[in-house]
Design brief:
Chains A, B: Its cofactor is Mg(2+). Chains A, B: Its EC number is 3.1.21.10. Chains A, B: It catalyses: Endonucleolytic cleavage at a junction such as a reciprocal single-stranded crossover between two homologous DNA duplexes (Holliday junction). Two copies of one chain form a homodimer. By secondary structure, chain A is of the alpha+beta class. Chain A has one domain: Trna Endonuclease, Chain: A, domain 1. Helices cover 32% and strands 29% of the residues of chain A. Chain A has a six-stranded mixed β-sheet, sandwiched between helices. A two-stranded antiparallel ribbon of chain A has the order 1-2. The first copy, chain A, has a two-stranded antiparallel sheet with strand order 4-5. The N and C termini of chain A lie far apart (51 Å). Chains A and B meet through helix 1, strand 4, strand 5, strand 6 and strand 7 of A and helix 1, strand 4, strand 5, strand 6 and strand 7 of B. Strand 5 of chain A pairs antiparallel with strand 5 of chain B, so a sheet runs across the interface.
Chain lengths: 201, 201
């Protein structure tokens, strides 16, 4: 049953919930987003284990077309397709406050392409902002391994500016408007230390 | 491609995200939970459209075993299985606060069986309580069409009591400890009016 992906790694279906999402990223975007997702999931597991926060990645929605019901066995989905999510990928609670974010990465070194985000994700972020939730994106420049937190209001503003032909966010603006995240081992991407400083003061 | 379920209704794969979840409930629990889920999704759409809250049902996690990549076409999942979620089904933000809940229904008239909940859902609720999130369950007695909000701390307490051989929550206790939800058309289950009264005072 093992499937080999273009990167030569076998797909392991026996991992716990959430692992399937990597497949989705691979399918949709090649290898883009892979390691960032792993690092964030690992960080969230750390936060959960330490009682710091409860933040999970949402499962990817699938459009199910055909299901078999073998006698005395579990239902088997025989035909389904990956769907675009209508929200961001991550949400949860940190000290009573609602946390909501999307994580993306680029190989670019000087700017972050806005095509990484979808219209409905931006719309969702605007809705969360209106409800006074804490909403942001984590942006990784993978070539230099830098991760920034950029508040959703800035991202939404850059998104609107696209109509004026700017299709990416210059890294220099991210450095000014965003916040660099400390990288480590436990947790790998300590974004909540930054969230605490920005939104809880 | 249409599939007919035991209730005689055809499965329509063309609905938007979230519809697939009904399939899951049907598969796992027969028809149990169906209309409650529809009513809550409809209520959440109302809240979203009115700018009252941003609350979504999470997609059901699937364990993907086999994926085909037809040339020039979208990836097709050829073998997958329904997985148990590790969190509750619904979460989101309401006036800055984190909202998290599970919705269940019973045909019983005098008590609510605890087997409707899974251990990992209770564990998730405890984690959310520790983070000071607003966490509860919506319990419908379908035979009499009454829906109650029961705070998660009570549910977790009843859950722990199971060891003392009590396998369900008497309805009389739900009436005392919980809060009856007003039912209507827009929204069908106005649980946020109750949330506001309990948690925002």
């Amino acid at each position: 049953m093992s499937i080999r992906y273009p990167n030569g790694k076998a797909y392991s279906p026996m991992h716990k919930e959430g692992t399937q999402l990597k497949t989705v990223n691979k399918v949709s975007y090649g290898n883009r987003g892979m390691s960032l997702e792993e690092d964030i999931n690992s960080s969230n597991e750390y936060y959960l284990a330490k009682g710091i926060a409860v933040i999970h990645k949402k499962p990817t929605p699938l459009q199910i077309v055909k299901v078999d019901y073998p006698k005395r066995s579990a239902a088997v989905i025989k035909e389904a397709y990956f769907q675009q999510a209508s929200t961001t990928d991550y949400n949860g609670v940190f000290e009573g406050k609602y946390i909501d974010f999307e994580a993306k990465e680029t190989k670019n070194k000087t700017s972050f392409p806005l095509k990484n985000f979808h219209k409905h994700q931006i719309e969702h972020m605007r809705q969360v902002i209106n409800q006074h939730g804490i909403c942001f994106s984590l942006l990784r420049f993978s070539a230099i391994d830098e991760v920034y937190l950029l508040d959703a209001k800035h991202l939404c503003s850059f998104w609107s500016d696209q109509e004026n032909s700017r299709k990416s966010i210059p890294k220099k603006e991210i450095e000014v408007l965003g916040h660099v995240i400390p990288l480590g081992l436990y947790p790998r991407i300590d974004y909540l230390s930054i969230v605490k400083g920005i939104y809880f003061s």
